[in-house]
Give the backbone structure.
Amino acid sequence: MYFEQIKTDGLMQWSYLVGDGNEAFVIDPRLDMGVYLEKAGRAGLQITAIFETHRNEDILVGSAKLAERTGATVYRSKYEDPGYTYGTPIGEENVFTFGKLTLRPLHTPGHTLGHLSFALYKDEHAYMVFTGDCLFYGGVGRTDFYGEENLEKMTGLMHDSLFGKIRPLGDHVLVMPAHGAGSACGDGLEEMPLSTVGREFSDTAVLPPDKDAFIALYGRILHKNPAFETMEIRNLQPQGLDCVPYPPVLTALPAGARRVDIRDLFAFSAAHYPESLFIPGDLLSSYLGWFVETSDPIVLIADNVAEETIRLAVASLARQGFDHLAGIMPDGGLSDAAGNAQTLAHIALASPEQYEKMDIAPTLDVRKEDEIEADDPVIDRFCVPLQELRERTNEVPHTQEPVYVLCQSGERATVAASYLAALGRDNLQVIQGGLSALENANGKAR
Amino acid sequence: MYFEQIKTDGLMQWSYLVGDGNEAFVIDPRLDMGVYLEKAGRAGLQITAIFETHRNEDILVGSAKLAERTGATVYRSKYEDPGYTYGTPIGEENVFTFGKLTLRPLHTPGHTLGHLSFALYKDEHAYMVFTGDCLFYGGVGRTDFYGEENLEKMTGLMHDSLFGKIRPLGDHVLVMPAHGAGSACGDGLEEMPLSTVGREFSDTAVLPPDKDAFIALYGRILHKNPAFETMEIRNLQPQGLDCVPYPPVLTALPAGARRVDIRDLFAFSAAHYPESLFIPGDLLSSYLGWFVETSDPIVLIADNVAEETIRLAVASLARQGFDHLAGIMPDGGLSDAAGNAQTLAHIALASPEQYEKMDIAPTLDVRKEDEIEADDPVIDRFCVPLQELRERTNEVPHTQEPVYVLCQSGERATVAASYLAALGRDNLQVIQGGLSALENANGKAR
């Protein structure tokens, strides 16, 4: 038996290539699907089937292109059709065999109405279950995509799917979800390498058997990245790339492109091209969609950024549908600009010691609501989560006096400050090291 | 939580680096232990403990050197002392914590008398069990190291360890053994990526609950690689390498070194330096010890062999204690030798079609007893398993007439023929493609 979990960094998406004998299948292939061709080819396997657990919204899938390259059939749920233009509808009556392996679809609605999980049997024993966005490690898929009015219904369906379809497979069955900790498709997921059905259901605080308690716990509206809307539409049409192409390398800033700076936080704070949005290269998937349209032209500013990080950043853009990358600037531009005395911008930093001495200090806290505690050592705080900043910019006072910007570590605060500065705000100071540094300076152990 | 399974190819040995918070432990580190330093360092973890499941016999362990580099403590079983000169003895009363992880030793004799498994608890739930050479995927550790006279006792202990210590941990617990399929520490292991306690115990044909049935199934004497004896002794003394050094690259054959040819089988058959032993580079760990002493000087002949395979071959030698590698010859030697009309040797190949037409054809079958079937299409067969060939060379007739050499694919037959040819036998013919080819030529589907 061949088994590989393909972890796509940035998106925290896990796809799977599984085979036996000389046949293999893929679960939820990513956009740049050459990776499956290479791995299957080297293992002497022919990919004959591609399964989608649901119409994905946080990644572009490469199913159609992978099918074209391999002759495989794409299978997707018959229980819901958001307007697919490809794929063969399947349900629980369908059974698929690959050598000694058998794969059985399970209808597990909750994240979406048509969501499928797939139980894998080896020598007729249940062995693994591919749970897509139904069951994760230490959490479940979000149930808020059908709006407030359907939240209770969808969360109830999720409960029934988990306790009616997944749990009966048996404690010994390995759980293989579509996402790990850090994904926007669930909340509070646990950083764990592996898990089993028995392990997940053993903690009733995480998976309450009581349906009302379950709905109370998970019936929540979460932030939805605007880029998801684009991907939901594009995933109905054939997509796919053999690999993400290396973009043009530029030596001058292109006109009209959004400047996205993926350098080190301190390097960015000290000097950057005016109007640049700061986002660390490995976090583009998490943050970019909140500030930039997928249709916007983009230039990545990447002086002294590791090649590995640049490649991940470029791939992350493609995988979320940011298709208008004008180019990257990996080398030298900023130093030259400084040497030529061109105007560079910077972000003012306030040290925790400076901040603590203030009597009046309007402070923008950009963390999420559930991170905030009443006794945080923050002066004159007002809260706008980073995800809502674009819609709520006018809540940030545009005064002569400084506005301090805070998050846990200083990273999201710098993203926020860079966004506001690009809009012309010149009164922002990022609290260096964020709340962690404030608490250390304060001697408060957490 | 950090978790990584480090798979060492060739030996099919699986070691583990696991951590939480900023502390980590290693289970059964291999000789070249720099790999754990690098992975732990990059993950921001300090290795504070090293656990040995048992005194290993099929690999050299790097525990002592890893302890020296990290300041970690080496822990080993208190239930048996074969003469250790390092390590702190521990038993079931000891408990170790690493962040939110707890590790508890379990005394699981059978493979050895003192063998330990380690149950890992996360947030106080049993999560994984590191089973060493007790429980593998689809099989158990061999129980014959204490001789025929203790075979029933040791196999009975193995049964009690499995059903008394491992199974009670619960179906949902992940099984993390020290070896995968292909290891010489178990027999008939299954090629599986992952497994759980529930999965392993679900098949009563593999793990019979009845003790007598279990002993009947597993109470067997297996071949023991002579290199194991050396490793058993050396593993009592501190060992370890930061990495396996790249050996001298030679352009001429060194005097007095055993010639081990790791090239392609067909290349070897057509032309090789006289007296060379043929062993594929990725199978050195499996075969070399049957023919060469760990103290013998060795030269690896590797024209046109992939660099990756050369590195694996060199590492495999070091990891099993073949410390006298005079050098490698990766390039050009053989072509030059042919061009200069030096004497090169070859192995005669018989095609299946030629062989089938023979009336009399003494045939040496070097497969293991359990591979042989009475109706194999083999003429005048006599059997000497490859592992026993060195001791039973005199059973191979040294006649004018050819002796045919057979295995399943032709690979082991070529190893055998090369060994015999180096002893001066000049009447050998390898049946090309082995039994598989004979059966194809015969039209017999298996």
User: Anything to note?
Assistant: The two ends of chain A are 47 Å apart (CA to CA). The first strand of chain A starts at residue 2 and ends at 8.
